[in-house]
Specification:
Largest sheet: none
Structural class: mainly alpha
Strand content: under 5%
Number of strands: 0
Number of helices: 2
Length: 66
Amino acid sequence: MALRVFIFALGLLALSWPFGVGPPTPGLAFFFGYYLVCWALLLVILALMARSIRRSEESPPRPPEN
């Protein structure tokens, strides 16, 4: 749960920082590329998290070690 909250906060920070910088001096092309990379990374992270959760639910529980 803590990892999900951390990823959410990190994504929120990464996607909102250009609005606090001021007027877009580099232009729209920079922001389009930036947001494209941010969304792609966010999708990859969410897919990896879903994959790990699915694997942990499918694997049989291990017997306790002595």
